[in-house]
Amino acid sequence: MSYVQKKDGFQGQRAIIIPTPVLTSVCELHPIIRQLYITDIGYYPNAEYHHRHRPQGSGQHILIYCVSGKGWAQVDQQQYNIVAGEFILLPANVEHEYRATKEMPWTIYWIHFKGEGSDHYVNLALQGKGHHVSPVAFQQTRIHLFEEIYKNLERGYSTDNLCYANMSLQYFLASCFFDSNYNYQALKEKHDSIDLCISYMQKHLDQTLTLSEIAAAASLSSAHITTLFKKKTGFSIIEYFNQLKIQKACQYLLFTDLRVNEIAGKLGIEDPYYFTRLFTKLIGVSPVRYRRNRRE
């Protein structure tokens, strides 16, 4: 049993509830959509008196993104205060309760979703964040993405509309779960220490860099940057640098007629045999085979 407490709705509110027949006949059967799909989606502005309590939880996972005002939520016996610039993730079938504050009722975008792979998305987010509420920097592009999803569903439930909306849902979730990666190109001037190191490596792929040179790009000690880099990327700095070199090598092999030894030289690797071994280790085939396979 659940209940909602509000007056006569919220001025400007919008919501779409996907009909059950559409969910069962299309979303649950389509080989792509069934992995992750929307069941409900909406927008509540200045949602005074908005209150929801589900003792048995919901049959879907729920993401609520607050863009102004305040609210609170309780899930997994933990209570959270939610402010603008935060989202809360409520796993399916878990008791929860949430409410807008009286003095500053929240404005929220919300999505209910499920699917064969939906648990993995939620677990990934919860394990990465460590809790149900996380901050996200406001970006208008994220709101535009939500509106894209909403407007396509508003146009009806053709397979094309459903595919587009639900494939876009993956991107929307990723924009929340990996906020520092989202819209990276537009925000690249706000690099952190690891980004500075990676940018430095990208600009010097034709050289053999030392650990101290890379650390200096971030104004940190070699020991400190080594620990931070491994924690954030899962790779050592040298491993990552080699991956960037081989990524560039793949582009040379695809888009130029340079010989293998010439490509190695352009990547600061004097020994073409070492380059071939490194390429084969990381890509799984030799440079010659890679070029041949892509041009056949």
Provide an overview of this structure:
The chain has 296 residues and is α+β, with helices and mostly antiparallel strands. It has two domains: 3-177, Regulatory protein AraC (Jelly Rolls, Sandwich); 191-295, Homeodomain-like (Arc Repressor Mutant, subunit A), CATH 1.10.10. The chain has eleven helices and eleven strands. The strands form two sheets. A six-stranded antiparallel β-sheet has the order 2-3-10-5-8-11, with helices on one face. Strands 1-4-9-6-7 form a five-stranded antiparallel β-sheet, with no helix packed on it. Helix 6 packs across helix 7 (222-233) and helix 8 (237-255) crosses helix 10 (272-283). The chain is elongated and about 70 Å long. The termini are far apart.
Descriptors:
296 residues, alpha+beta, Jelly Rolls, Arc Repressor Mutant, subunit A, 20% strand, disordered N terminus
Short description:
The chain is of the alpha+beta class and 296 residues long. It is 44% helix and 20% strand.
